[in-house]
Amino acid sequence: MARKHVTLKTTLSKGEFYWVTDVEADSDEEAIVAAENLFMAEIERIGEWEFTDYDVS
Q1: CB 35 within 8 A of CB 19
Q2: CB contact set of 16 (below 8 Å; sequence gap of 6+)
Q3: Model confidence pLDDT, tens digit, residues 1-57
Q4: In angstroms, rounded to a whole number, what is the distance separating the alpha carbons of residues 14 and 20?
Q5: Which end of the chain is more exposed for a tag (fewer CB within 10 A), N or C?
Q6: Is the dihedral of CA 53, 46, 9, 38 positive or negative?
Q7: What is the pLDDT of residue 45?
Q8: What is the 3-state secondary structure (H, E, C) of the chain?
């Protein structure tokens, strides 16, 4: 397995959301699924996090 850096992006009705993480996977497809699973595990604890970085233009 290789370590892969994954960026997932979705367009929502009022903006875009990115999820960036590192996973161990044998293929890009496996990396995407692993990243989605990590995101779902984090979102279950949504009350425990906040945005820590920003960019305003």
Answers
A1: yes
A2: 9, 10
A3: 999 999 999 999 999 999 999 999 999 999 999 999 999 999 888 887 888 999 999
A4: 20
A5: C
A6: positive
A7: 86
A8: CEEEEEEEEEEECCEEEEEEEEEEECCHHHHHHHHHHHHHHHHCCHHHCCCCCCCCC
